[in-house]
Write a structure and sequence with these properties.
alpha+beta, single chain
C-alpha cells in the first residue's frame, strides 16, 4: 500500500485519482443533487455531468487529455456492474470511477486521463 501512496504523490505529473474522484462527486452533486430519477431528464443530466466534469478537469491546467463517461440508472433492484480496461503508461496515465447514488438512482462516472508528452 505504501508504494501506491508514494506513486500517487511522488511525481508531480502523475494523475491523482483521489483528487479526481472528489471533483467528480462535486460535479454529480451539482447536476443531479437531490433530484429523483426522471426519464425525461436523464439525457440532460448525463450530458451536463460529463461536460461539467470535463471542464473542471481541464481548468486544473494539467498536461492531460481526458475522456469522461456517465451512466445513470433508475434504482429498481436490478444489479449494476461496470468494468473498464486500459493499455497505457501506468506511471503517468490514470483513471477513476465514481459510483454515486441517492434514493432513486445510481450515477456511474469514469474519468480516463492520458498524459500529453
Amino acid at each position: 500500500m505504501n508504494g501506491m501512496e508514494e506513486f500517487q504523490n511522488g511525481s508531480e505529473g502523475s494523475f491523482n485519482s483521489e483528487e479526481a474522484e472528489s471533483l467528480v462527486k462535486e460535479c454529480i452533486d451539482a447536476v443531479v443533487g437531490g433530484d429523483d430519477y426522471s426519464q425525461t431528464h436523464v439525457n440532460k443530466w448525463t450530458a451536463s455531468v460529463v461536460e461539467r466534469t470535463l471542464s473542471t478537469l481541464v481548468k486544473q491546467g494539467k498536461p492531460y487529455k481526458y475522456m469522461v463517461t456517465c451512466a445513470v440508472m433508475q434504482k429498481t433492484g436490478a444489479g449494476l456492474h461496470t468494468a473498464n480496461s486500459c493499455y497505457w503508461d501506468t506511471t503517468m496515465d490514470g483513471s477513476c470511477t465514481v459510483r454515486w447514488e441517492n434514493r432513486t438512482m445510481y450515477c456511474v462516472v469514469s474519468v480516463f486521463a492520458v498524459a500529453i508528452p
